[in-house]
From TrEMBL:
It is found in: Cell membrane. InterPro entries: MetI-like, MetI-like_sf, PhnE/PtxC. This is Phosphonate ABC transporter, permease protein PhnE. Residues 85-267 form the ABC transmembrane type-1 domain. Its main location: membrane. The chain crosses the membrane at residues 33-53, 89-111, 182-204, 224-241, 248-270. It is a multi-pass membrane protein. Residues 1-23 are annotated as: Disordered. Pfam families: BPD_transp_1. It comes from the Bacteria. One of its GO terms (molecular function) is ABC-type phosphonate transporter activity.
Length: 274
């Protein structure tokens, strides 16, 4: 452009000093001490628990002999296999149904945006109690209480389902938008109507996902709790191990895997539908 003096234009620095970046992996002496303590405790645990490489090598050798005795699987006792499978399936379905239904009510009562703290706090405590114990421990208690069989397994998995599903239900309800709730309340609708028309439409899809996952989990657990006498295919598996009937053990394990795969397939179908 005419009349423009190049010398009057703003000067551009010929070089810029490199920006200083802090080291993202910089650690303080406190962090180093914590890391050193963790590593030291790991070595201490290995030493006190007797975890040696020799035992690992011996275990691999024993595993090879065990697998050689498990194959080919023995499916000749079909009646025993199918009866245990049917009982496990029944335990899983019944416990999932009652566990999910109870969890719906408990999840609603535990939601802090829907209930006062005097209601939600003790319900949350009960849900945490249900989640505190492994299903096998719960199964042992129910076997002692009601005896061996499917009833103990059903009660165990209902208890375990509440601990997991009710917590997820409560958290899902707490994350809803409150605008539909206020709109329904403004019409003078009852509390049940608010739940049905303002809360449930927002969380229904997530509820279906939680429920299908719990059914899949109960299918696995129904075989596990049978080991302690709570019915199902787990009892048949435990008896086969006691008899050193390893080819029948392999048949049971393959059946359990097939059951879990079928459950996973059905869960995926349900999630696609909803």
């Amino acid at each position: 452009m005419a009349g423009l003096n190049p010398s009057s234009s703003p000067s551009v620095p010929s070089s810029t000093s490199p920006a200083k970046h802090e080291n993202p992996f910089k650690t303080s002496w406190t962090n180093r001490a914590i890391i050193a303590a963790i590593i030291g405790y790991l070595f201490y645990s290995f030493a006190t628990l007797g975890l040696t490489f020799d035992r690992l090598v011996i275990g691999f050798g024993e595993s090879e002999r065990l697998l050689s005795r498990m194959f080919p699987p023995d499916f000749s006792r079909t009646n025993l296999l199918l009866s245990g499978l049917a009982e496990s399936l029944q335990i899983a379905i019944i416990s999932s149904f009652f566990g999910i239904v109870i969890s719906l009510f408990l999840g609603l009562l535990a939601a802090r945006n829907m209930m006062p703290s005097i209601v939600s706090t003790p319900i949350r405590g009960f849900i945490a109690l249900c989640r505190s114990f492994h299903p096998v421990i719960i199964a042992i208690l129910f076997v002692k209480a009601v005896g061996f069989g499917a009833l103990a397994g059903i009660l165990t998995l209902v208890f375990a389902s509440i601990g997991f599903i009710a917590k997820l239900f409560a958290e899902a309800i707490e994350e809803i938008s409150f605008k539909p709730v206020e709109a329904i309340k403004a019409t003078g609708a009852s509390f049940v109507s608010v739940i049905l028309y303002a809360v449930m439409p927002q969380v229904f899809t997530r509820f279906i996902g939680f429920a299908s996952y719990q059914l899949d989990s109960n299918l696995r657990n129904s075989t596990m709790v049978g080991i302690v006498g709570a019915g199902g295919l787990g009892g048949t598996l435990f008896s086969a191990f006691q008899r050193f009937d390893y080819d029948f053990v392999a048949a049971i394990l393959i059946t359990i895997i097939a059951l879990i795969l079928v459950g996973e397939f059905l869960s995926n179908i349900v999630r696609r539908i909803f």
